[in-house]
Amino acid sequence: MRWNDRIGRRIKLSDLHILLAVAQSGSMAKAASQLAVSHPVVSRSISDLEHALGVRLLERNPRGVELTEYGRAMLNRSHAAFDELRQGVKDIEFLSDPTAGEVRIGTTPPLAATFVSAVIDRLSRRYPRIVFRVMAERGSQQEQRRNLNERRVDLMIFRNVAAVADEQTSFEFLFESPYVVAAGANNPWVRRRRIALAELMDELWALPAPDDAFGSFVVEAFRASGLDFPRTTVVAIALEMRTNLLRTGRYLSIIPEFWLQLPDRHPFLKKLPVKLPVASGPIGIVTLKNRKPSPVTQLFIDCAREVAKPLTRRN
Q: How do residues 221-238 score in pLDDT, each as one tens digit?
């Protein structure tokens, strides 16, 4: 039997859907409950798939079931297959109504509150029926990348770091946004024209913990200047909280410069003239290679380029 015949006649999308549910739940019984079908239906679908492929897709263990290496390989491709079908439906919807559709964006909370918000605001004014789903949980970079791999998001707005950009993805540069030392507009340091980082060691700092992903960057910034990590008055990763503390004029923090620029120039915070001797990756659009964006996703990409242009000129 030819391979195309095996796919067309013996592998069913419903069986792949059941395999995905079993893999996510770790149990045939749980998958049956989630799908509102009987346990024998789930078991038969898995058996049919294994018979069609000639390999075992699942292994039973005391905790339930888990994918074999063959099952993982099949599931990885199944994500792509379902995604292509989903994109096909979106394309048809867009052709029937170019003013509607959905785009799913993975990003970080700071970028979601600034750059991504600015893009959404501009695009939604042109196409008010587009739905934007933004996934900006404070998870690890690996979790964000997994969302892209499994097609839970259409694209990512992210810094060009190894955890999210590699040979499987395409990275399109949008703008540079270095990390800066920031203070409230009424902080006395704002009046200075040049400041050495060492001069600020005894100030009140609001910073993330040194063992946090961003905290390690802050540690390196001080270390590269020949300094220890400063005594931190407030240890917090939440940028919104640190911003509120900066507004009092008493605290200092290290934040991405885009936080001061978008969606509009921040009225209460200022960048201090301090040079941080460490580089930060550029910000851009991360997509999977060989995955054509839907028409609505392409509209978002085009709008992101527009919003980024002034930032590129400014930097």
A: 999 999 999 999 999 989
